[in-house]
Amino acid sequence: MESRGSVPAHPVPYEGVWRFTAPAVDVSVPQARHAVRDLLNRQGVPVEDDVLQGLLLIVSELVTNAVKHAALLSPELAVEVAIGAEWIRVSVEDNHPYRPTALVTDYAQTGGRGLLLVREVTAEAGGTCDVEHTAGGGKIIWAALPLKARI
User: CB of 92 within 8 A of CB of 66?
Assistant: First the structure.
């Protein structure tokens, strides 16, 4: 039984937090994307396909950034997936102290727009994203999306 405007009295079966680590190498990008997709399937998360595709793109971009820019000081990265009744949050953590910023769009540039893309995909889905520092001096970059696409 639910009370008005609050959290369900009984958690939905797919709620939880999962975390895994991977080496900061190129092959970890598709492995992380597949691991997140498989987790959502295994847990029976009712995520709409548009949101899922955006989420997997975000995972790919965040892991790619950690591999390309943090591997020297952070040979391992962590991916965390937190799922609530109506939302999903993915984050990538590394031990590099550099806090990236989303670059402005430069159509002549072939790279360097990953965080801008993450920000755009997140906003389009009606979610939020941010970068936080860890107690150990590294960073966590995260994006939270609703399970249902905005209409």
Answer: yes
